[in-house]
Design a protein that fits this description.
Elements: H1 4-7, H2 11-18, H3 22-48, H4 66-79, H5 83-90, H6 94-108
Helix pairs in contact: 3-4, 4-6, 5-6
Length: about 110
């Protein structure tokens, strides 16, 4: 299974699969993605349903953490692979890949 922990130990593969060095990835993740994610999630979940019965965050958690979802998005775009192969590499089903990529794209825009 692909993961940040495994792939970051092989810098040449990391750059080849993502288009970024490990340091560039870490800088973008720390300064942009992780910093904005909390506010983005609250805003995204608040828009969906004004009359919520459950608290924000009470649903099923993501299988991958934020860093690995960001890595998955970069690998998906860089290698231009299918959801099926992405799912195999990250141990997710195709519908989860689709949802995760859509949510990450919105954050990155």
């Amino acid at each position: 299974m692909f993961s940040y922990e495994r792939l970051s130990k092989k810098p040449l593969l990391f750059k080849s699969f993502t288009g970024l060095t490990v340091q560039q990835f870490d800088d973008i993740y720390d300064k942009e993605i992780a910093k904005r994610y909390g506010k983005y999630e609250i805003q995204r979940l608040s828009k969906r349903n004004k009359d919520r019965e459950r608290n924000i965050g009470a649903g099923r958690p993501f299988k991958l953490d934020l860093k690995n979802r960001f890595l998955m998005l970069l690998v998906y775009y860089r290698l231009y692979i299918t959801y099926m192969l992405t799912g195999f590499l990250f141990d997710l089903d195709q519908s989860s890949i689709c949802r995760d990529i859509q949510k990450m794209e919105s954050l990155i825009r």
